[in-house]
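Progress note, sequence design subtask.
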């Protein structure tokens, strides 16, 4: 015989079912809330790590992104003197070919930030014929040519710059701009801008003879002088930026005005 529920029992059953449904609904809401909170926490941590993984501020991050998109305005040529089997000058446990390469790489990096593509005669310790360096610059379509060297003597300090013997005004402008920026960066002595070669003012160094564009050869301090060497090491990046600034200003004057 089936049990007949009273009205009171039926009400209790209905109320219990409602309570169970409410408990299930509350559990679901709590679970959903926990999931949302977890996602928010994880997302925030990810954004924090993305912003701080290099220790950069938002402004630095923007600047870094902008640096990657600098428009290339033109091409110049940076010649790291000597190299490979040709060590250049040697003194005080230093070799000219090593110093010129270090400086050339610093100049190339600084030029890139200014939108100038720097082609190079060499990027490592390899031999390149002196006469061919200007020819390479010609093939690359470079607009300016700068050859980096170091001096040597029993006595002597400072920087001197050599330009072609016929004293072309554009090469002199390049040399003057370079010397100005190097003096601002700090050198021991301005030894002047000279034409031709040391033995013969009417002749030209190979680096000034073959390029079709304005050119100069820089004797960047004396490798035989301790003060010049100390400044070369301490101010390497500063000198690189100074050279890049001078090259940039010359490029603007000759090709962008």
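Output:
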């Amino acid at each position: 015989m089936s049990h007949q529920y009273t009205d009171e029992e039926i009400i209790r059953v209905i109320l219990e079912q409602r309570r169970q449904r409410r408990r299930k609904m509350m559990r679901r809401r709590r679970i959903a809330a926990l999931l949302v909170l977890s996602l928010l926490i994880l997302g925030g941590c990810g954004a924090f790590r993305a912003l701080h993984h290099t220790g950069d501020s938002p402004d630095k991050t923007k600047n870094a992104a902008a640096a990657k998109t600098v428009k290339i305005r033109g091409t110049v040529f940076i010649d790291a003197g000597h190299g490979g089997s040709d060590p250049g000058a040697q003194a005080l446990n230093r070799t000219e070919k090593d110093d010129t390469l270090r400086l050339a790489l610093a100049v190339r990096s600084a030029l890139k930030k200014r939108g100038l593509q720097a082609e190079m005669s060499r990027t490592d310790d390899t031999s390149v014929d002196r006469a061919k360096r200007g020819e390479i610059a010609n093939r690359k379509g470079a607009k300016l040519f700068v050859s980096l060297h170091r001096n040597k003597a029993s006595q002597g300090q400072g920087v001197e710059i050599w330009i072609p013997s016929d004293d072309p005004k554009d090469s002199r402008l390049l040399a003057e701009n370079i010397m100005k920026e190097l003096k601002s960066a700090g050198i021991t002595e301005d030894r002047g801008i000279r034409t031709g070669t040391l033995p013969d003012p009417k002749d030209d160094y190979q680096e000034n003879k073959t390029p079709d564009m304005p050119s100069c050869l820089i004797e960047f301090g004396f490798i035989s002088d301790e003060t010049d060497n100390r400044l070369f090491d301490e101010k390497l990046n500063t000198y690189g930026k100074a050279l890049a600034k001078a090259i940039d200003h010359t490029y603007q004057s000759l090709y962008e005005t």
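The helical segments are 7-52, 58-68, 96-113, 130-140, 169-185, 206-209, 226-234, 236-255. Work on this subtask will continue into the next period as scheduled.
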